[in-house]
Amino acid sequence: MCDDDIHQGLIEDPTVSRRMFGLMSAAAAGLVATAACAAAPVVEKDVQVKTPDGVADAALFYPEGKGQWPAVVVWPDVISLRPVFREMGRRLAAEGYVVLVPNLYYRVKAAPVIEGGFNFATPEDRAKLTPLRASVTPEGADRDAVAYVAFLDAQPQTDRSKKVGTQGYCMGGPLAFRTAAVVPSRVGAVASFHGAGLATDQPTSPHLLIPKTQAEFLVLIAENDDKADPAAKDKLKAAFASAGRPAKVEVYQGAAHGWTVRGSQVYNEAAAERAWAELLALYKRALA
């Protein structure tokens, strides 16, 4: 679900041991978010979500205090749940959302699934992902998506009168599309950031699911992804138009695959902040 060629030379996250990962998560729970992550107190919890295939480890975030807010499922990229995606979860929750960030690979290993640094240019490092990625199938992702939305709807902090949002990064982009297709009555907004394989020739291609959805879409494409498959954006635009779904499909010029993920070698803060602003505008508009 994610093209390794796009990731050549991409280095994700400094070295983070499992113990340090836990300490960082615990220290962040319930604290006021930093200036980079919005100034609002947020509760963070490690949770277990029952799915038809087992029990998924995930992180749950919501604003501190009494109230109810719209829910969002965040599908992380190929390295799955780790501190940078916890940071995203806290930041989004601080904006007034109940946020679930699951571990994509719970069937194989609990997060963090990669210990230490990781370099896509190294065959040995890429090989670590092979058994993990094999555990994520379209059918399994569909079952997971239903379970994650149900879990969020069961939280007392979730405003079930509001639509659910979902966003995905890299291989998480297709999973966000699939979420909108399997729970169409609940999902009102979908965002994909440098999503991989959104419009392919395979029968499981995410763009074929668009007619099943009832959501508004934001699809932001990396410049090098567009150069690798320039027809993909046109297929997406045609599919959205045919289905009558409101959507914005844009190539972010000067932004490489992975540009929204802090800690990656290609992280582009200006472009990432622009994408974040577009995400918040989408949710404010569509999660009503």
UniProtKB/TrEMBL annotation:
Keyword match Transmembrane helix: yes
Enzyme nomenclature, EC number: 3.1.1.45
Keyword Transmembrane helix listed: yes
Gene3D superfamilies reported for this sequence: alpha/beta hydrolase
Domain of life from the UniProt record: Bacteria
Annotated ranges, domain Dienelactone hydrolase: 57-286
InterPro entries in alphabetical order: AB_hydrolase_fold, Dienelactn_hydro, Dienelactone_hydrolase-like, TAT_signal
TM region(s), chain numbering: 21-43
Coiled coil spans: none
Keyword annotations of the record: Hydrolase, Membrane, Transmembrane, Transmembrane helix
UniProt-recorded Gene Ontology molecular function terms: carboxymethylenebutenolidase activity
UniProt name for this protein: Carboxymethylenebutenolidase
UniProt source species: Phenylobacterium koreense
